[in-house]
Specification:
Layout lengths: L7 H7 L4 E6 L2 E13 L26 E6 L3 E7 L8 E11 L1 H8 L11 H7 L16 E4 L9 E3 L13 E3 L3
Antiparallel strand pairs: 1-2, 1-6, 2-5, 2-8, 3-4, 4-5, 7-8
The protein binds a DNA duplex through β3, β4 and α3.
DNA sequence: TTCCCGATTGTA
DNA sequence: ACAATCGGGAAC
């Protein structure tokens, strides 16, 4: 089961409250999605703004595909592709609230501080041990699983996106309190 | 082929 | 507040 991923802005909101779980040989690791950002093709801040490249090809694939990219020479970030095939758009997962496999996260993140396990896009990828080889694959074909919210989520806050220099006026960062 | 910089994080 | 660190993309 997947949330509505018909476009990136709605998808970014709809993904909040869903639980992302990675089923690994060492155990299940996961958490509830509490922060996302939307990127569209007609958006200067998006990797797809100037058309497809070898790296960004997965973003043009169908909704439910995964897109991972390497940033600042050391971090991997995970996106869930949205929209029709041929449209380059996706949702960046920025933070989770840990629910499963906290001991494994502490090991992979090399910290016991719960607040710092999955508090950024690079951190959550490291905590869940999500391999870059997932990029380009369909989420349902990987060991990742999305579980619908158990109870209704609270109010969604909409703010400016983090760490970008272009299209900074777009309020496409979405967060919830749990 | 070269150069520049980024959808960040950890440490001081 | 700031250094660490390197692949991709655009330009030459």
């Amino acid at each position: 089961m997947l949330p509505d991923l018909s476009n990136s802005v709605d998808g970014a909101k709809n993904l909040l409250g869903w639980e992302l779980v990675h089923h690994t040989p060492a155990g299940d690791i996961g958490g509830i999605i509490i922060e996302t950002e939307a990127y569209r093709q007609d958006d200067e801040a998006s990797h797809t703004f100037r058309g497809p490249t070898k790296r960004t090809m997965p973003m043009f694939d169908e909704a439910g595909t995964l897109y991972m990219y390497f940033i600042y020479g050391m971090h991997w970030c995970l996106n869930i592709v949205t929209g029709q095939e041929g449209h380059g758009e996706a949702v960046l997962l920025r933070a989770l609230k840990p629910t499963h496999g906290i001991e494994l996260m502490q090991q992979y993140r090399k910290t016991t501080d719960i607040k710092r396990l999955t508090n950024g896009p690079g951190s959550l990828v490291q905590a869940l041990a999500i391999p870059p080889t997932y990029s380009g694959q369909k989420l349902i074909h990987t060991k990742l699983e999305l579980i619908p919210p158990a109870k209704p989520i609270g109010e969604i806050e909409s703010t400016k996106r983090i760490g970008i220099k272009k299209a900074t006026d777009k309020p496409w960062r979405f967060t919830i309190e749990l």
